[in-house]
What we know:
This protein is of the alpha+beta class. It contains 5 helices and 7 strands.
Amino acid sequence: MRGRISQDTPVGVPAKMVWEVYRGLELSRLVGEYLADVIGKPQVLEGDGGVGTLIKLNYPPGTPGIRYMIERFTKIDHENRVKVTENVEGGFKGLGFDYYGFRLEIIEKDSESAIIRSSIEYDADDKLADVAASITTRPLEIIAEFVGEHLS
């Protein structure tokens, strides 16, 4: 079973500014500083924010099921403002998914606004259909909304 869900979040700041946050480690820093109680506490395990960087996200206490996730930055396309990460340990990978990843795109709407497109892509055995049904982009939306407000 393969799936993809996506959410567009409009923000009232230029795409260039949004990309400066999303492209490297700044997003992890902001999540850790302002959203740790909602999203979790990111920790850089390896890398400088480029391809190959490993981030461990420890979910907040009380989060059902999954305790942590380690993701690897697999693609950073500065020209098209696209960042792709793959869950390599814990998270949905730890629940048996063959692939679970995020695709984050910053789309220029006009000179003063952008759209943050947050997508989750996954591949898993059909027996995990009930687990796949629980996948939501809501945490990514919370982050996108926060980034838009923070940059405003």
